[in-house]
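seq as requested:
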Amino acid sequence: TTISFGTSNLHENTQIDIFNVKGQKVDHLRIKNEELRNGKIVWNADEFSSGIYFYKLISDGKTVDSQKMLLMK
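struct tokens:
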């Protein structure tokens, strides 16, 4: 699953936290410089079941964006 994001307000210390519908954090992605420049990161969701997930984009400790995703297998 590819997560795309705008890069204008992001710094090197950027990450994505992924949550299930219960609000439990199920994964953590540290964004590398190349992914930051490209504005996208791939989430390997092989171990997760189909359903609704939420991601939170965090840069320098501040939430920049959060979105809902639908994972279908």
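The radius of gyration is 12 Å.
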